[in-house]
Here is the input.
Amino acid sequence: MSDVLKFGIVGTGRIGRMHVSNINKLIDGAEIIAAADLYIDAAADELKANGVKHLYKDYKELLANPDVEAVIVASSTDTHAEISIAAAQAGKNVFCEKPIDKDLDKIKEVLNVVKETGVKFQTGFNRRFDHNFRRVRDLVTDGTLGDPHIVRVTSRDPAPPPIEYVKVSGGIFFDMMIHDFDMVRYLSGSEVVEVSAIGAVLVDEEIGAAGDVDTAIVTLKFANGAIGVIDNSRQAVYGYDQRVEVFGSKGMAKAENDKPTTVEVNTVDPPTTDKIPYFFLDRYTNAFIDQFKEFIISINEDKPTMVTAEDGYCAVQIAYAATESCRSGKPVKVSLD
Amino acid sequence: MSDVLKFGIVGTGRIGRMHVSNINKLIDGAEIIAAADLYIDAAADELKANGVKHLYKDYKELLANPDVEAVIVASSTDTHAEISIAAAQAGKNVFCEKPIDKDLDKIKEVLNVVKETGVKFQTGFNRRFDHNFRRVRDLVTDGTLGDPHIVRVTSRDPAPPPIEYVKVSGGIFFDMMIHDFDMVRYLSGSEVVEVSAIGAVLVDEEIGAAGDVDTAIVTLKFANGAIGVIDNSRQAVYGYDQRVEVFGSKGMAKAENDKPTTVEVNTVDPPTTDKIPYFFLDRYTNAFIDQFKEFIISINEDKPTMVTAEDGYCAVQIAYAATESCRSGKPVKVSLD
Amino acid sequence: MSDVLKFGIVGTGRIGRMHVSNINKLIDGAEIIAAADLYIDAAADELKANGVKHLYKDYKELLANPDVEAVIVASSTDTHAEISIAAAQAGKNVFCEKPIDKDLDKIKEVLNVVKETGVKFQTGFNRRFDHNFRRVRDLVTDGTLGDPHIVRVTSRDPAPPPIEYVKVSGGIFFDMMIHDFDMVRYLSGSEVVEVSAIGAVLVDEEIGAAGDVDTAIVTLKFANGAIGVIDNSRQAVYGYDQRVEVFGSKGMAKAENDKPTTVEVNTVDPPTTDKIPYFFLDRYTNAFIDQFKEFIISINEDKPTMVTAEDGYCAVQIAYAATESCRSGKPVKVSLD
Amino acid sequence: MSDVLKFGIVGTGRIGRMHVSNINKLIDGAEIIAAADLYIDAAADELKANGVKHLYKDYKELLANPDVEAVIVASSTDTHAEISIAAAQAGKNVFCEKPIDKDLDKIKEVLNVVKETGVKFQTGFNRRFDHNFRRVRDLVTDGTLGDPHIVRVTSRDPAPPPIEYVKVSGGIFFDMMIHDFDMVRYLSGSEVVEVSAIGAVLVDEEIGAAGDVDTAIVTLKFANGAIGVIDNSRQAVYGYDQRVEVFGSKGMAKAENDKPTTVEVNTVDPPTTDKIPYFFLDRYTNAFIDQFKEFIISINEDKPTMVTAEDGYCAVQIAYAATESCRSGKPVKVSLD
Here is the structure.
């Protein structure tokens, strides 16, 4: 293994190009040297300016480049599984954006190939690397909070996505709450065994017409006996509301939203503080970087990744259960077998 | 009606005596002149020192006192309905501690007598008068938050009650979360139509052996389309955790816990602030007083009380639904008919 | 000494009547039984309703009442010394509003009489009893903060007093910062040995025309080596700004302003919280009560009062020094001899 | 002018190398292509890895490189003026670390050369670019706070520098408070006209033996009538305490310290939050970067820099005045002529 870990990236859309910029500018010990995308020409100038030397239309050519040690799969969701499998079989370590797939069998295939090939695999649940949430998780892990009793996640977007997106995304539990399903597993240190969901259409009737809800609360039971709750809304007019709380036998820790500055303004009107960040690129700026730092450490030191392929599988499985519960009005068991 | 409203109180236990002290010392325009309790002798000295002139063993004698204009029912729960009915029939306005009764039919009887007699009736949900929660409610009422979408209540006690109490109280949904059932109705400005509960025994196995849970999360659907969630624990080692949040179409307001001082201490150790109040007498000190101020205004100005007998009925009804849902694992409809 | 300590009060203006209401309603173990004021008739109804039995025009009659054990001097400033001396000579314990007098010799006379007669004497620096400031003081006293290095007080009024008041009050250092001079002595646990003042007329030119400043900063040196700073403004449009901070060898503690509720409102506009209290009656409500609780304890348990006559002397002395420094532009030494 | 602005840097110590890393990795539109240092060999590997192509021992060779458009002067203080002048005369724009010099005449020479040559010149007062302080400044500039009345800066280091440094630095007013002198000018939008200082030796007697103080408070008068205060300590055991506040005719804004996360931990012990950053590299990370972004904009868009050479001159001048005042005990006038 070289001193500098050499990455290839498949998919050079907005997120893919952000990964390129982050890794090649901000992360020592790693470099994206190759990129593949059907529409690679559109991104070619920017990629070259950021030091990416090899550009391909076909991701298979990228996998054939022997210098590439690890592959970032940032293409469209329906290609994640196929490319991940091919990369693993080519002996490359794999970083795959979430969800790995919406088909549980396909994800299992990925799991199997990862196991057989022994490559490192990390799923792109970047929020695990958020400074606030990670600190709460550490307080669980180091025993400060005792046994977790209640895990709580609030996650609200500033505005709904285009209705076309909603129609194909699989709905709020798949395109939005999936992050929170992973978060409660991360925070509780335990597996979800049962899910109950309620939802409502309060933001936009078109979302309801598309068969989805835009406001939802899900309660969860964990294998360790803890219980949890997640609430989501497609539209928080005040910004991107991202908070977590763990309540345990020895205490409680909660993470509030970040704010750009600490300034408080006092006038004849009520005191004001800064608004919270508007959306995920502002809020999770460092988490997007830190997930790769950890991935690189996992590879270099041959340690398990902080988000495994199994983690990717579980989140999708819970999303199915929540969707079903929201429709049927009944709790749905989740089992990892 | 006299300038100073004259009260009688039935039941002179800890809470009853607190009401006497609050009203006779801190509230202008009202005076407790009479008290009744089977064990009135034990409290006689304190009551007299606080200006209560007429002491009775039998509450009927108190009701026969023509100077008494309003009666506070602070006796044991199983006598609330009977005394409330007798007081109303005697033409007295009634302030009744919660719950009015555990039997829904008995509460309905109270409702009917109140309607027939036209007396003012207020149920002792003191938390509606808390400065923090009332402010959040005002932000709903004045339209600042728009239509409510998600209502959230966290309510955790510092330590479980004696196991003997748990065995007779009706369980966590009746003796603890009943306050929160009232709170979500208050905050949402809407009726609960469906309840789903999950619970766990994580604090004390004896509580489980008594057929109860000590940790619970309940989700609710409201008639206006909003959804809500309440979480309870019998034991928050850091104190009496009482927070609410309303998220609506135009914004979100949240009330954090009060703290005794604003002082922050910075040393070589992490910065500390004051601990939150340990229990309800510390936290709801002013709410216990303000509920009577409002009751007095309702009587003097002939306005509806801020917590009606119907409010008392609804909370008990929701507690039954939550208890059933927690046992069956299924959502339970709530209907006020 | 009786179980209930019997007070007389001289001066039944706004503050005097507040003391009556506080003591007779809220404080167990004490009762104001007598009041004297040249214009006693104007307050007679309210005083009687609050249980004051004996009303006099001449304070000497009040002092002649053998039931009166302690006297509150709440008359106009120019009569404080005379009445305090007469009360002490009549064997009454004395609570005297600040300042004891503006003439240092007259205060010394009071000090001497207090010493000779051995009565308890407390000066009305109520802010020492504020929950926030007292907590900071305790952190100094118990050693948490180590040796004090920097003591900082911010004290800003919501609006300037009438210009007629400014003309006779002695100026900002006598009518406003005098509280802060006491506060820095209280917080530092040490005597002021030198004062430097700068001032400006920024709020109202009439204040300048009256020979006063409306904005001022004073630095102080303490006998224990610490240094301090106080800033004052006659007009903080956002409310009554009252904060303190002690920085020491082992840490720093700071007290922020109180707010009526903990509610934070998030909308499309910047997040808001409650405004701070508008003025001293709202902010120091409990401090006004607690100063008497401590005075009563001092008398009943024969302990030194928390604010002595010497404390009253020192504050006035520092106010003279600050006034001189602000005019001369030079530091002024302070010595307690 | 090329698309990418080409920098040379003189001085490749710790701060110099941080500038190289920041500019070459994090700032688009600029690149450090050349570096000069007597001990350039020690830094050569790191500089090359960060893309610096031309390395020199003699800064004059760097100035002779026609590709270099702007020079960063990060060498030892006693060489700042000489190199700045030479760079300006070579037609290079100049970014000079603070202080420009300790000799006011030498700084004036720099001012003159800058004026004659018309190059852009920025002094390294990085704190002006801090997100918190800049926001407060903006609230002054946009009129939200009205006319400034009181400007307050608290600046405390976590631990004193080596005593050898104190002996040659010029003392606390030159090596530490000089940043705050610039800050009050920045926040008030006005010039300092008079300074009064008090100091104490409370942290380390050796500092006193070296003729310096380790704890100091300085009050200031501004040309616009406002007054201000700065407090400094060489040792805040809880970390790097950096706060500012501006109080004006229309309101007050204050910037509290940053904290790494928003997490609050509640256990049986008092609630804790994160400690503040330990020192300036942690706290001013972004300010160190943003000062160059603004410098580049000034050059590219031919606008005045946000910190001029005059700003560098004023801060040193105030430091002399404060030093004199602390010794003499008298206020010292400051005049920019």
